[in-house]
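Consider the tokenized backbone below.
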């Protein structure tokens, strides 16, 4: 996810962070609501609005939908991390700053895994900023420029 986030952010670098988040959330939330509606109708064989809203909020219409909760959290944090990485790239000691951020993310992920619970959602969706998923996303964003440069050199 970090590599694709980097590519996406590079393509929308002139857009304000709030507009980026809004655009990305809108792209995922509408299909999520439709999928939850379909799961609710198919599973229950009738439509119960209260149950539907409950499932939308708790991301539990189907097991794989916990990932939507994770993805929404990562949308917020990744826009912020991308901005920080871009600022670090302009600094003299960018590697040092990126390493410090990495260590802070590891510490934060450890706290998140052990001390956070979001609506008892399964997996990374139930942990603040996805627990260790944010660390993996950050690593992907850090490696993306090199991986993309290497790919273009191959072709």
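A designed sequence for it:
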């Amino acid at each position: 996810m970090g590599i694709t986030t980097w590519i996406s952010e590079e393509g929308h670098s002139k857009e304000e962070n709030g507009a980026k988040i809004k655009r990305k959330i809108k792209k995922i939330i509408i299909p999520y609501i439709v999928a939850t509606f379909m799961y609710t109708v198919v599973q229950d064989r009738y439509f119960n609005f209260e149950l539907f809203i409950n499932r939308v909020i708790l991301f539990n219409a189907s097991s794989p939908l916990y990932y939507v909760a994770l993805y929404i959290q990562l949308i917020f944090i990744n826009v912020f991390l991308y901005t920080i990485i871009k600022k670090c790239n302009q600094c003299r000691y960018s590697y040092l700053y990126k390493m410090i951020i990495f260590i802070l993310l590891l510490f934060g992920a450890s706290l998140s895994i052990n001390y956070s619970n979001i609506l008892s959602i399964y997996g990374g969706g139930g942990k603040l900023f996805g627990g260790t998923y944010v660390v993996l996303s950050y690593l992907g964003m850090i490696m993306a420029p090199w991986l993309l440069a290497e790919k273009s050199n191959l072709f």
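The chain has one domain: 2-154.
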